[in-house]
Design goal:
150 residues, mainly alpha, elongated
């Protein structure tokens, strides 16, 4: 295919690729990566303890560990997509934050050392949501609102 026959890039992709990546988008990606890394570390920790330790129910511990490792893929992939300015990545990033809010609420209601973790998780989730729905972030990802399609 010659250079004259190459199709023109989508206008949304061309707009998203123009200019430097906004700091808000970078911060949102960093928060998503932080959550994904925490899930991955927690999942591996539970998995290793389930396999090598003496849990009450080995099968349940292994299942929980594998589930957390798999769930870590969602925010990690979203963070990578945000850094690469892919429009699809905002959806998984927002879903991750929305899923984190009930977890934070339950941690805050606990009478244990889980309360500080709940505070941190709630702050990170709300901050990431604010960054993800920001107009600058939306424009950088090439996402158009309803009725604004070209």
């Amino acid at each position: 295919m010659s250079s004259q026959q190459n199709p023109a890039p989508d206008t949304a992709e061309a707009t998203a690729a123009a200019g430097p990546r906004p700091r808000r988008l970078t911060y949102a990606a960093a928060l998503a990566a932080l959550e994904g890394t925490a899930l991955l570390a927690g999942g591996l920790w539970v998995l290793v303890l389930g396999l090598t330790g003496a849990p009450d129910d080995r099968q349940q511990a292994v299942t929980l560990g594998i589930t957390l490792v798999v769930l870590a893929l969602l925010p990690l992939l979203a963070a990578r997509g945000l850094l690469l300015r892919r429009g699809w990545s905002r959806g998984p990033a927002v879903i991750t934050q929305v899923m984190a809010l009930p977890v934070a609420y339950n941690l805050l209601r606990a009478d244990s050392m889980a309360i500080p973790a709940g505070i941190v998780l709630a702050v990170v989730a709300v901050a990431a949501l604010v960054l993800l729905v920001n107009g600058e972030t939306t424009r950088a990802l090439g996402i158009k609102g309803p009725g604004r399609a070209e």
